[in-house]
Amino acid sequence: MTDIFGIPIQALMGQLMLGLVNGSFYALLSLGLAVIFGMLNIVNFAHGALYMVGAFFAWMLLNYAGINYWFALILAPIGVGLIGVAIEKLLLGWIRQLDHLYGLLLTFGLALIFEGVFREFYGSSGMPYELPAVFRGVFDLEFMMLPKYRAWVVLVSVILCLATWFVIEKTRLGAYLRAGTENPDLVKAFGINVPLMVTLTYAFGVGLAGLAGVMAAPIYQVSPLMGSNIIIVVFAVVVIGGMGSILGSIVTGLSLGLIEGLTKVFYAELSTTVVFIIMAIVLLVRPAGLFGREK
Residues near 55 by Cβ (< 8 Å), separated by ≥ 6? Predict the structure, then answer.
């Protein structure tokens, strides 16, 4: 077996694949955060908790109602999106024009509430979610064994991320969304229902988190702590890519996942902090982030 710097190629590729899977979740979650911040100017700290809620919805649909993974991919994000509609209408709408700190504190409080409720009913230990039968097994690529489900996760994440970027940056709907953020009165003059557009944008952003939770359920343990374990890294991804930058979130999320994977191969002790080291360096060199706009 061929070695690279004394490391078997299969071990190296395995860690890169694991990093790409993690990066896919980073990209999906940071994409939702970027959409919400870029369009609504809200720092949504509840994003990790809603990712966890999406995973639990999938688990409950399977174990309580016998509804399988494929239907959960549709129903769980819709359920999380409806929670997002309630949050935006009942809470965030009151503070949207205030300083970012108020939105951050409110959504942080919501994250603690969601986590506390699920911990009360399900405890802190993780619960397994059955892998769909079609994804059991691996692809033999000769230089590595690629689990089918992980390949699926990467493929779906990349397609969703690129589709979202295209809609927001290249279509008339995206133009309305951007204009509604910068000049809502002008957009209203064209007959666009800006409050409804804002609500649906928030619902879409958290729905992406719910979808990521469903896809994460067969890989990671479904646990009330899974959101808090990932949200800090996701915020670092958003900061590095540039707050509100859709393309920045996608590229940075996938890239940092790969960097984490490589770090685990060459210097495992640094793998949990490498993202934050990169964030510190980027903020020193370019405070707006790699893809952010300097003010």
Answer: 76, 129, 213, 214, 216, 217, 220, 222, 226
